[in-house]
Amino acid sequence: MKPVIIILAVAWFASVFANLYRINPFLAAFILSVAIERFWETFLASKQNILAKKSEFDWLFKIITYYYIAILFGTVWEHILIKRALNLYLSLSGILVFTSALVLRLWAIRMFGGKWNTCVLGKIKRKFKPAKLIKKGPYRYIRHPMYIGVILEAVSIPLVFNSYYTLVFAAIVYVPLIALRAYLEENELIKIFGANYIKYKNHTLGL
Questions:
Q1: 151 and 145 Cβ atoms separated by less than 8 Å
Q2: Domains in the chain and their CATH numbers?
Q3: Where are the beta strands (DSSP E) in 105-147?
């Protein structure tokens, strides 16, 4: 899977650089920064490398990753091909939402001290389970700060570019997949932490 993602990422970067003259410089800098940060977060930031292990939920991680790349492609190419006049207020709103999402995700990552992963655990990966249930930081109030951050990010990126068709795709296709991922993860955490997680679930907000 990783080679495929790298190939797609390289193709995306190549297409952006080849068309930089057709993209607003600020928007180009923004989307390139987004892509680099996401690659770092997905493959480099976690000290717990479990991508090489197999589980019954790997298909979901693959689909979500491919669709995220599709959002990046769609955002840029819709902006290039349709050539809409940018609505400054929408773009600024998108940047505000994206910044909030990034802060929320990085805050959540920090709570794990590097021992976090990008996949729903599943039976095989369950041995990589967290040593304890995290209830501090954003997890004190919401169960899925990472996923909420990802949803906000997926919506904010096309919003910054005023790529409305891509925004609709993110809302009706990508967001439900993240919600499914959160649901499956909760089932796994119940198996790991039992009544302790159920009690935590009853006192926090989820998706």
A1: no
A2: 2-202 (1.20.120.1630)
A3: none
